[in-house]
Amino acid sequence: MIIFKKAADLRHYLDEEKKSKRSVGFAPTMGALHRGHISLLEASKKDNDITISSIFINPAQFNDPTDFEKYPVTIEKDIYLLEKAGCDILFLPLVAEIYPDGFNNHKQYDLGKLETLLEGKFRPGHFQGVCMVVERLLNIVCPGKLYLGQKDYQQCMVINRLIQLMDIEKDTTLVVCPTLREPDGLAMSSRNMRLNEEERKRAVAIYNVLTSIKNYLQPSSLITIKDKAVEKLVAKGFRVDYVEIADAITLEPVTEWDGRQKLVALVAAFNNEVRLIDNMLIN
Ligand code: PAF
Question: Whose CA is nearest to atom 8 of ligand 1?
Answer without folding.
Answer: 29
